[in-house]
Amino acid sequence: MNNLSSKLSSEYISGFVDGEGCFGLQFRKDIRHKRLSTPVYYSWKAQFTICARKDELELFKRIKDYFGCGNIYNELDKEIHYCVSKIEELENIISPFFKKYQLQGKKKFDFILWAEAIKIILRNKKLKTNVQKGLHGFQKTNWNENDLVRLLEIHTEMQKYKSKRPIGFKHINMAKKSA
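The structure corresponding to this sequence follows.
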């Protein structure tokens, strides 16, 4: 059997994610500019992502097949991302996997916080959108105040486990030539 077509081990995936994975939690502010009143919407978004060079596409396809969810994206034609962002898939597939096949580095602590955030987001998720005649838009999600406070705490705590990557070209040392 060709090595590229063989099934990946759970331990391999866990180790790969320890080095290349990310458990993301974002607080988003969206402004709708098409309306006169420009309403502002706030939302929490969680995702699980793995990033690698574009030549790892076959490996990412195998990881996607293993989990049975998520999508693979090209990023700037140089790297690829495997991403799972559906909250139910994060709770029912990704979170149980990493609880069973635990990460070994500092990402383990990042995951523990992220998994707690997933439960909070799922607990406060709207069950349906507003589609009743005579009512406009979406129904407001009534968040539990303690859950919102805890999500903000988790978001702050997770920052110490994230890589500090330079923005733009600041990391390139451009020495000036003397005339």
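Confidence is low (pLDDT under 50) at residues 167-179.
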